[in-house]
């Protein structure tokens, strides 16, 4: 039973952990999880020895689980193993108290089964077995360590000194950096000034694949990064009463949180050699988003290499500004969702980024630009939404589609369709007509292609380019009451 409970708790909390404390007592183990997006900030689980098994949750300001079992140690290790086994982020805090050598042996066996080392920023040990501690260090990547005991790391230090000298060779450093992600590289920068200088000479590629940014609160900026080696790394910039913090590391003094974030963001992207697969930016705080964009360095203009750009809850001006930062040579798709205020596309066609992208998706809102003023036919695939559409608009879109050599598919969602009763006068008899949708096939002059037009009543039109050879001859209308 406790194995099922462990798996359930692990699945619920694993991706939200950024700190762990484990304290062993005589007949109790206290596990404290520092959690993201939890009002209390942490969850405490008390594993207690009791011949009558029980499990109950205490809510409130400080959430707590009381887990009683005769085999309470087994319950703890099952849950702890489930939490650590596939954990891909890094721990801001990993604190252990009152650990004996047998406890370290259990932990060592868990860590050995991981595919990579557990990354820890602050590692704290109190009242512990020294040999046990040394046995697990090879399975951890630690940036800072704090201990209440003096430990003889002489052998380690001699080895570290030799390693530092080796790492000061740019040729060796280049090979070492090939297998490190950007977080590991940032840790390596702190080894020594000479190592840092050597890294700057080599200019390592952080191999970032995806970045997600949220600008919803001027006092809090979360950034999620996925790289070649790291599935997900969360970094949180937060204002505090006397300064700011990055994750749980605090810094004193006045600050502009947006400038601090942008400085780090520039450093992260500086040596990126291949385009980022996805850059996802979410707004909703219009004033703060304007401040962030206003603080962006001119170095960003046309420099950020991104294949797929996703923008949510932004104004048209903010989307326009962000597009200017993107390198147009690499941009393939633009997705705009849930925009705030009226959204106008009139000026977007002036941007190289807009001209070069292949796929445009607009979701969750209607654009205010009149259909016949839209300059979007450089895209190969489009999915957009408008408030109103008329038969004249459909004829215009049909003509633009027939003229374009690049458009493959256009889906246009609408809220209202005026003079829809005349549709057959303009498009002819549909090849297929059902209660909720009609389909037309229209020849494209001097082409082996044809236009497939699907009208779903009161919802959307889909224009698609097809091979004419695949379409039955009787699918094409012979004569229309209206000709373009």
UniProtKB/TrEMBL annotation:
InterPro entries: DUF38/FTH_CAE_spp, FB224. It holds the Pfam family FTH. Residues 301-425 form the DUF38 domain. This is DUF38 domain-containing protein. It comes from Caenorhabditis briggsae.
């Amino acid at each position: 039973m406790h194995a099922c409970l462990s798996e359930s708790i692990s699945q619920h909390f694993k991706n939200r952990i950024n700190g762990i404390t484990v304290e062993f007592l005589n007949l109790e183990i206290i596990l404290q999880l520092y959690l993201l997006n939890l009002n209390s900030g942490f969850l405490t689980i008390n594993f207690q020895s009791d011949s009558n098994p029980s499990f109950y949750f205490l809510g409130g300001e400080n959430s707590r689980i009381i887990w009683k079992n005769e085999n309470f140690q087994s319950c703890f290790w099952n849950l702890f193993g489930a939490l650590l086994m596939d954990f891909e982020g890094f721990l801001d805090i990993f604190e252990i108290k009152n650990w004996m050598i047998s406890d370290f042996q259990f932990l060592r066996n868990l860590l050995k089964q991981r595919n990579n080392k557990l990354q820890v920023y602050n590692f704290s040990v109190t009242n512990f077995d020294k040999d046990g501690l040394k046995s697990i260090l090879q399975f951890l990547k630690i940036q800072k360590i704090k201990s209440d005991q003096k430990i003889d790391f002489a052998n380690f230090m001699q080895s570290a000194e030799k390693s530092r000298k080796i790492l000061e060779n740019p040729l060796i450093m280049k090979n070492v950096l090939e297998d490190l992600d950007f977080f590991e590289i940032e840790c390596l920068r702190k080894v020594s000034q000479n190592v840092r200088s050597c890294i700057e000479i080599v200019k390592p590629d952080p191999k970032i694949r995806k970045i997600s940014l949220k600008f919803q609160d001027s006092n809090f900026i979360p950034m999620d990064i996925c790289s070649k080696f790291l599935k997900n790394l969360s970094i949180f910039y937060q204002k505090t009463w006397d300064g700011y913090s990055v994750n749980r590391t605090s810094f004193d003094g006045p600050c502009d949180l947006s400038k601090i974030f942008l400085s780090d963001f520039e450093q992260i992207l500086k040596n990126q050699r291949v385009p980022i697969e996805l850059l996802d930016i979410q707004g909703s705080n219009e004033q703060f988003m304007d401040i962030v964009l206003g603080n962006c360095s001119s170095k960003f203009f046309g420099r950020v290499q991104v294949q797929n750009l996703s923008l949510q809850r932004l104004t048209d001006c903010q989307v326009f500004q962000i597009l200017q930062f993107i390198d147009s040579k690499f941009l393939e798709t633009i997705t705009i969702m849930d925009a705030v205020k009226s959204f106008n596309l009139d000026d977007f066609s002036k941007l190289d980024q807009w001209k070069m992208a292949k796929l445009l998706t607009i979701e969750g809102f209607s654009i205010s630009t009149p259909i016949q003023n839209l300059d979007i036919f450089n895209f190969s695939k489009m999915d957009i939404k408008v408030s109103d559409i008329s038969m004249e608009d459909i004829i215009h879109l049909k003509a633009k589609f027939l003229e374009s050599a690049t458009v493959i598919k256009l889906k246009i969602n609408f809220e209202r369709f005026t003079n829809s009763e005349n549709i057959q006068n303009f498009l002819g008899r549909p090849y297929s007509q059902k209660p909720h949708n009609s389909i037309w096939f229209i020849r494209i002059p001097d082409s082996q292609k044809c236009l497939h037009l699907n009208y779903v009543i009161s919802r959307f039109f889909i224009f698609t380019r097809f091979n004419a050879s695949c379409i039955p001859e009787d699918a094409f209308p012979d004569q229309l009451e209206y000709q373009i």
